[in-house]
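B., you asked whether I could sanity-check this one before it goes into the benchmark set. Here's the sequence:
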Amino acid sequence: MRTRGGILVANIIAGLALGYTVSNIGFADYAELNRMFTFQDLRMLLAFAGAVAIIVVVFAVLRVRRAPGRIHAGVIPGAVLFGTGWAISGGCPAIPIVQVASGYLPALVTIAGIVVGMKLCRWANTRYFHLDSGSCER
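And here's what the prediction gave me:
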């Protein structure tokens, strides 16, 4: 199953399972995301915190170490833009795909915004910022 086709099939199956799960527990619902960002309902926020706690324990058990280094110059503005877009649109880059698959067609606008934002970021980086892309791009 190490062939390109096998890996693609495994990724498709994992993506469908994740999308199904996210949709069924309500995490693809704009209202649910809005309640999280306005601290009206902490269910989703606690789920994220639980996931982070689990991965911290797994990393500690596996003794995963990362050499401390400088923070990439694009991390802070990128995080601010990502969080702002997530709060406004009700979805990180994967959630609008789940929303469209669930029949919520306004998420197409979010997907278009993601694509345009990626193109604008690459354009601005090559023209003005010249930030090292590090391991983010190939």
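One thing to flag: The helical segments are 4-24, 30-37, 43-62, 75-89, 95-101, 107-129. Otherwise nothing jumped out at me.
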